[in-house]
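To close the section, here is one more complete example, presented without commentary so you can practise reading it yourself. The ligand is zinc ion.
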Amino acid sequence: MKKVLLLVGLLFVQGLALAATTFELGRDYYYEKNYERAKYYFIKETKKNPSNYQAYYFLGLSYKNLKDNSNAVVALKKVLELAPAYDLTYRYAQSELRNIENPEQAKKEYAQDRAAKKEENLKDNYYDYMLLGQKCYTWESFPITVYVEPYEHSAWVRRSFLNWEKASKNFVTFEFVDDPTLARIVVATTKKGIPSANGGQLLGVAKWRYMPNGHLHSAKITVLKRRPEDNSKYSKEHFVSVLQHEIGHSLGLGHSSSCDDIMGTHCSYNEIEERAISERDIKTLKILYGAAN
Ligand SMILES: [Zn+2]
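Output:
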């Protein structure tokens, strides 16, 4: 089953936006699975920008795909030298290194992680699980104003926000506005792929800004509207599910351990199409906002 990745791409997307054209060329070749060309551009990029750890990361992945493990290890170790430990690229590089250097141990850890997830799925919330990967923030008050950039299915976008209101019994509320400067959440759609830090493609991304008091100030959600592999449109169910996931992030939620929850990650297309905002999603949201019973 094809697994796709949904995650908060805050750090890397900002990092990638600053990267040079050489890096983007390498990344394009990487996504086309032309690892020889990708390698060429990532080497060029690391010579030009020796501190670009994302280039080293993709260089490592390119070597790995070319079955050149010794050079992959050198490039990935460079990531650990250059990247800050809180950056997901650092963690991905660490796990790639484990996979290459000690596949048996990596397999064992993966099995342990799966068992832990199963255990987590039995709980009525995923608050603790969610905090493993990140710090979570909240809004100071509701309703939150929302602006939707012109999109042929803007009704699907509205539906996604209304679903959160309904599922939470109006614990969270939104107000749609026509002026983006009045909005705290802006929703955009894109035809272009959204690259992720681990060499995959993101279906959507939510970026936040915070206020000095630690509350959320604003959020920008971007959702992919066509499949990167064949440019066909996503189904309404898929689009709404992905957008609801990103709205969850924009409310301050992190990831759940289960693909039955809207905040699940690493879920298949079918799982994404079939899931809805769950009781666990709402319970976790209420714990986050200090409103659980
Ligand atoms: Zn996510």
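Once you have examined the tokens, check your reading against these statements. The chain has two domains: 11-101, 131-288. The two ends are 39 Å apart (CA to CA).
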